[in-house]
Amino acid sequence: MVGLPIPEGWKRSHFSADIKPSIKGEKVTVLGMVLSVRKQGGLCFVILQDRYGTLQVTAHKDRTEPQVFERLTGLKAHSYIGVKGVVKAIEKAPRGAEVEVDDLYVFSEPKRLPPFDMFAKTLPSLDKRLEIRAVDLRRPTAQAVFKIRHQVLQAIRSFLVEKGFIEVNTPKIIGSATEGGAALFPLLYYDKEAFLAQSPQLYKEQLSSAFERVFEIGPVFRAEKFKTPRHLSEITSVDVEMAFADYEDVMKLLEEMIHRAITDVLDKCSEELKALEIELEKPRLPLKRLTYNEAYKTLKKLDVEVSWGEDFSTPALRKLGELNPGFYFITDWPTVSKPFYIKPREDNPRLSESFDLMHGSLELASGGSRVSSRDLLARRLRRQGLNPKLFEYHLRVYEYGMPPHAGFGLGLERFMMAITGISNIREVTLFPRDQTRLTP
RNA sequence: GCCCUGGUGGUGUAGCCCGGCCCAGCAUAGGAGGCUGUCGCCCUCCCGACGCGGGUUCGAAUCCCGCCCAGGGCGCCA
Question: CA–C1' distance A169–B19 (Å)?
Answer without folding.
Answer: 64
